[in-house]
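Support request from a user on the community tier.

User writes: "When I paste my structure tokens into the form, the page sometimes reloads and wipes my input. The last time it worked, I copied everything first. Here is what I submitted, just in case something in the input itself triggers the reload:"
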């Protein structure tokens, strides 16, 4: 446990909680109900997935439906071709398939354009929250690492840190021809790709000559209206804001019909849009009793309220799989148990604060338990771990 990281984590999480309490969106309960209905309809729905793919293709978007991680990487490498520089935005699916690492092994230069993700990339650090990846790092620690990387002296204030990283990112954006993003939703009715962000970097990444979208099959939504409803709930739970600064809806390549109403493609960038839809065992999970796990929209609100995560931070994580939900998915994905499952207190705080009320504790009990005696063992051990680290944290910092 890194006590400094845990303190920074709690401070950041508390600021989000404060914004949430002072800025609740209208009709939140009704919106959650609509979101739950959309997730129940779409996750594991092969027919709806086919409709979405068909509509995307009719809109002139190339689509690859891939089963496994390596297949996705090979297709993306093929789409990149001979280019050696790629700029990308935050994407949990690209982290899941370890895309950046795979591309760099092939000699490509990959630059994260999200400020937080670029900091993680430069410092070779792990994320602490799906929408706020560097919340566990203090400005002092970030400045120290960046100063070493850029070989300049950087003050430990957020404004200067952001300025330096932004200049680095802009330099890469100006030279790249390939942009890679994730997607928050793919809509079946319109064949649209929906992305949201606050920094404005996706606006730049998606305007490269070729835009490659890497997302997963559980991101399908019936229509734009249901996707926008999801974005409001995602934003509120992730940051305390009712809506992000930017929402991008992509329904085809750049084109014009100004002359005789005839469509001419490739007026501006992107002139080519490719979607890589990753399964990566999601179809298997959907029919093997863990379909609900795929309802998650990635807001990270569960982490804000998880007692264990707020005590040991990224110790309750595996690679990019954070907290109870992440560890559950990681364990299932790897086809076996994970010793980090023993950290879960099964207290239910995550379920209480999940906009979809996902019963992660029940899933974890199902994964790790071979009977009542086994679950009692895990219950007692997890609580002993938590009490020990809580006492240690209080002893060293005075923080409860």
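"...and here is what came back when it finally went through:"
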């Amino acid at each position: 446990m890194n006590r400094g990281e845990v303190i920074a984590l709690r401070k950041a999480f508390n600021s989000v909680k404060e914004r949430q309490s002072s800025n609740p969106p209208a009709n939140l309960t009704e919106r959650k109900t609509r979101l739950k209905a959309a997730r129940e309809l779409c996750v594991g729905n092969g027919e709806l997935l086919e409709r979405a793919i068909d509509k995307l293709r009719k809109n002139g978007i190339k689509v690859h439906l891939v089963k496994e991680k390596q297949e996705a990487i090979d297709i993306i490498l093929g789409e990149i071709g001979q280019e050696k520089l790629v700029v990308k935005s935050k994407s949990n699916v690209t982290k899941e398939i370890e895309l950046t690492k795979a591309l760099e092994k092939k000699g490509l230069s990959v630059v994260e354009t999200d400020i937080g993700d670029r900091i993680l990339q430069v410092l070779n650090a792990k994320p602490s929250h799906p929408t706020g990846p560097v919340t566990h790092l203090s400005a002092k620690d970030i400045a120290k690492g960046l100063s070493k990387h850029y070989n300049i002296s950087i003050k430990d204030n957020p404004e200067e840190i952001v300025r330096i990283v932004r200049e680095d990112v802009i330099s890469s954006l100006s030279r790249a021809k390939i942009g890679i993003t994730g997607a928050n939703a793919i809509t079946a009715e319109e064949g649209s790709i929906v992305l949201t962000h606050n920094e404005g970097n996706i606006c730049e990444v998606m305007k490269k000559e070729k835009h490659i979208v890497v997302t997963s099959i559980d991101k399908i939504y019936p229509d734009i209206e249901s996707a926008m409803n999801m974005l409001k709930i995602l934003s509120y739970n992730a940051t305390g804001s009712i809506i992000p600064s930017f929402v991008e809806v992509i329904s085809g390549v750049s084109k014009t019909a100004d002359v005789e109403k005839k469509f001419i493609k490739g007026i501006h960038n992107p002139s080519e849009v490719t979607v890589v839809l990753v399964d990566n065992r999601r179809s298997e999970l959907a029919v093997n009793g863990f379909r609900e796990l795929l309802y998650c929209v990635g807001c990270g609100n569960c982490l804000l309220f998880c007692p264990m995560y707020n005590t040991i931070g990224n110790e309750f994580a595996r690679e990019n799989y954070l907290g109870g939900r992440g560890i559950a998915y990681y364990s299932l994905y790897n086809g076996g148990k994970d010793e980090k499952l023993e950290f879960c207190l099964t207290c239910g705080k995550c379920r209480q604060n999940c906009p979809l009320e996902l019963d992660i504790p029940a899933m974890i009990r199902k994964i790790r338990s071979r009977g009542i005696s086994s679950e009692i063992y895990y219950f007692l051990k997890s609580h002993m771990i938590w009490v020990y680290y809580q006492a240690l944290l209080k002893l060293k910092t005075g923080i409860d």
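Agent notes: The reload is a front-end session timeout and is unrelated to the input. Residues 143 and 230 are 35 Å apart (CA to CA). The chain has 18 helices and 14 strands. Escalated to web team.
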